[in-house]
Write a structure and sequence with these properties.
By secondary structure, this protein is α+β, with helices and mostly antiparallel strands. It has 6 helices and 10 strands; from the N terminus they run ααβαβαββββββββαα. The chain starts with a helix and ends in a 6-residue tail after the last helix.
């Protein structure tokens, strides 16, 4: 079975699971393509690789970036769709076809727990206890309502694509056709009053590692299905280390003084999903989430 159909199976199975639980209880492609075309006329650059990374010299784009373009998915032993503190549930492990050690995505602290402030841990526990008994909107996963995934949840489910017009890295998400545009020219972040579903990203290269600072989040996205959350003060530092032609090690450090007692770190491993000649003609599916959605009709009336 191809990667594309595996991802479809995951999405369909997840939808069926949600419907079952609820019954028991309830910038578009054209603009992005235009953006890429316009950006081809602009400039950008990469920093000189560090000594430790010179052992492998990846191909380069026209502006000197390590070329990570192509189609990728989370393929490491740390999987998450359900609960990032406990790893993937058994159903999603079987559907993904990937082996897992059922570890938390959180690698620091070493106990795998998000360092919530006491009030925040209590709030998360309330959502966890009620996420299959949707009597309040506060218990409803934003993904179920087809809102954008946020960071880093954009990488959990299905295929995503890197595109590198000069001076930028663009990330296209197959699920719900999400996107991120990461300028590399050192421009400042947008103002503090602007809050975005996917945050505001600014990046630069350190050798073979893409370093991205993400600010300007709203407080509406979750990290998983069971209610792990953040506030609009969240700041994320991402590191995408291109270690070989088919592997990217991803680390993200999260700081949010409104919600956490200290920063914490998550880690994933991305694998290339489409290679060779197939990659020349491969396209992301239009994975429309909201159109035809009947989940809302099955929710308890108290949550409507």
């Amino acid at each position: 079975m191809s990667g594309r159909f595996v991802h479809l199976a995951i999405a369909l199975a997840a939808a069926v699971a949600v419907l079952s639980l609820l019954t028991i209880s309830g910038a578009g492609p054209t603009s992005l393509l235009s953006f890429v075309a316009v950006a081809e006329a602009s400039g950008g650059g990469a920093q000189t690789p560090t000594a430790a990374e010179k052992a492998w010299n990846p191909p380069r784009t026209s502006d000197g970036q390590p070329d990570i373009q192509g189609f990728w998915a989370n393929q490491g032993r740390r999987l998450a769709l359900y609960n990032i503190e406990e790893g993937a549930d058994e159903a999603h492990v079987r559907l993904s076809g990937n082996q897992t050690d059922h570890q938390s995505l959180v690698v620091d602290p070493t106990d795998g727990r998000i360092p919530y402030q006491p009030w925040a841990r209590a709030k998360r526990q309330e959502v966890f206890d009620n996420h299959t008994n949707l009597t309040k909107w506060e218990y409803v996963d934003p993904h179920l309502r087809c809102f954008p995934s946020g960071v880093p949840r954009v990488f959990y489910q299905g295929t995503f694509q890197f595109v590198q017009p000069p001076g930028y890295v663009v990330i296209l998400q197959e699920f719900n056709h999400g996107s991120r545009i990461i300028p590399l020219d050192g421009r400042p972040h947008v103002g503090d009053t602007i809050k975005l579903w996917m945050g505001d990203s600014r990046g630069h290269w350190e050798g073979n590692t893409l370093v991205v600072a993400v600010t300007g989040h709203n407080d509406k996205t979750w990290f998983d299905i069971v209610g792990d959350f953040h506030s609009d003060a969240l700041r994320i530092n991402e590191r995408y280390t291109f270690v070989d032609p088919d592997t990217i090690n991803y680390e993200a450090t999260f700081e949010d003084p409104k919600v956490y007692t200290r920063p914490f770190k998550m880690a994933l491993t991305f694998g290339r999903t489409v290679r060779g000649e197939e990659a020349r003609s491969y396209e992301l599916l239009e994975s429309a989430c909201y159109e035809g959605d009947r989940n809302m009709q099955r929710m308890p009336v108290q949550a409507r």
